[in-house]
Amino acid sequence: LEPLLPGDGSDGGEAAGHAGATEPKARAVTPRRLLGLAAGEAGPLALGCICLLVASLAQVGVPKLAGELIDVAIQASGGGSSPEEARRRTSSILLQIAAVVAASSLAGGGRSWLFQHAAERVMCRLRVRLFAALVLQEVGFFDRARTGELTNRLAEDSRVLRAVATTSVASALGSAAVMVLGLVLMFATSPLLTALTLAAIPPLFLTFWLYSRASRPLVRQQLAASARAAAVAEETFSSLRTVRSFAKEGAVQARYEGAQDAALSYALRSAALDACFFPLAGSLATGVVMAVLWYGAQLVIAGQLTAGALSAFVVYALFVATNAGALLGIASSVVQALGAAERVFELLDRQPRLDMQAGTQEPAGAPEGGDVRLQDVWFAYPSRPSIWVLRGLCLHVSPGRHVALVGASGGGKSTVVALVQRFYDPSRGADAPAERRAAAPHPARVPAPTSGAGGARTGGAASNERLEAAARVANAHDFIAALPQGYATEVGERGVRLSGGQKQRIAIARAVITDPRVLLLDEATSALDAESEHLVQEALERAAAGRTVLVIAHRLSTVRRADSVAVVQEGRIAEQGTHAQLLAAGGAYAALVQRQLLANEQPQQGQ
Ligand code: ADP
Prior knowledge:
Layout: H1 31-36, H2 42-77, H3 83-135, H4 139-144, H5 147-189, H6 191-198, H7 201-238, H8 240-245, H9 249-301, H10 307-349, E1 372-379, E2 390-397, E3 402-406, H11 413-420, E4 428-430, H12 434-439, H13 455-458, H14 464-473, H15 477-482, H16 500-513, E5 518-522, H17 530-544, E6 548-552, H18 556-561, E7 564-569, E8 572-577, H19 579-585, H20 588-594
Parallel strand pairs: 3-6, 3-7, 5-6
Antiparallel strand pairs: 1-2, 1-4, 7-8
Helix pairs in contact: 2-3, 2-5, 2-10, 3-5, 3-10, 5-6, 5-10, 7-9, 9-10, 14-16, 16-17, 19-20
Bound molecules: adenosine-5'-diphosphate.
Transmembrane segments: 93-114, 163-186, 192-211, 275-297, 309-335
Domain ABC transmembrane type-1: 46-336
Region (Disordered): 428-460
């Protein structure tokens, strides 16, 4: 169903009503599309290319001048010219070399800055686009994706792509320019020697090809093992309390070590391969240089070549060789980066199955706000499409009413709330009034914006006064004010530096500040101490006043306070009524109470 992420666990089976849920095929990654990433940087990149050309020209100019300098010196020593004249000429050549080197450095610096500048901007834009694409994906997508992998794509893949779209292209252009110029100058100096040099290319290429064929799988496996190790580390640190509670430090250490050991063994094999290849390639290259030198020496002896020309030739040959090597390296990195590019473009192109923008605006003539209605809702989770979780569920909560959802675990209570929040769309049926659905393609999300609410409610930060007022409603102001840093306190990831009751009161304050018409509550199953419980209850009652409330209830006290109780069983509402009515009816609800599935109201102190 979902070809995007490995390990998505899609089981192939598809419940009715999920037609059209198949993923559109990702567009192929073309070089055009890759370069398109750098489209906004055309100016700096063009300028960078000019700098690059100047730098390359200057680079190949130096050996030519150096060769001339050698020839002038040799001529003078052989009595071919006066020493004064030779000194004057060598000084002038040295000045030319200095000028060329200065030009090359300037152009090189300019090239580096311009390309880097473009690269950073491309990467920044890419990451922002990728984040925006991800954050708009529907909740079902995140049920299947691994957080670690998504953050990895955001950081790593975009970095790799940046390199391909800008720096690699630039270096490839530079290398190609130097190579072509070097070859031309080689030919101009001595076609015979050039032919001799080029004869060395096929065996060198063959060894490189063999090497990369052997090395690539090793590198890939090493990266995969490292990623596994990183996943173990991320999972461990993000759930350290669980690890500690179960005394699993030893186990996670062993898992981490296992993954690192695997990475190490691949890295060592890779290192052994490198230790064989590079000396071999080096000897081959040196052999070629020696052969060229020997043959060149014969040409000099025969008077067919000057010594200076020979030394310039050797330097050109080295230029050509190193740049050819660089081009091969770039080619292989581009091939590797194409994998990363495919993954990034897949995410960039992915259309969320739920439109996050739709339904957030109140259509004109909408029914009174705060009306929650589920009509014959059938629902299967996208990650488990063959199992119906809700089977024709109907529920209506009129504005301002408080309804408690009760039922055995796994019956579908949380799923109902998730649908009302529009984390998912129903597979069949509707989870909002038909009128609203007709006016907007999707039901309003909860908390629904109050009519007339300005941008402040959905956008910008709340003012300090509103913040404090909400905290007071939620019984959170006193404890916040007592903290050394007050409202500026850093509470840690997921609020690790707060107590259970404090976290709940902060959550209530957060809900209050958005001033929703509908309040969705999931009652904590674990009891707080009596004092905290009282503070949370009081806060909840204040927050719920005048609002439509749907609460997943686990306590009798909550159920008694609700206007109506709905028993969720096997994806349907089994019965609905007040606590007293349902008790008297002696049905599913009475059985729940009987089996003490609803905790009694008074938290017992000292237990
Ligand atoms: P309750 O809140 O009544 O305990 P839930 O709504 O949480 O019940 O769960 C109903 C069923 O849906 C359970 O069988 C559960 O395993 C399944 N379920 C819940 N969340 C998901 C999910 N994100 N993906 C797949 N199945 C889920």
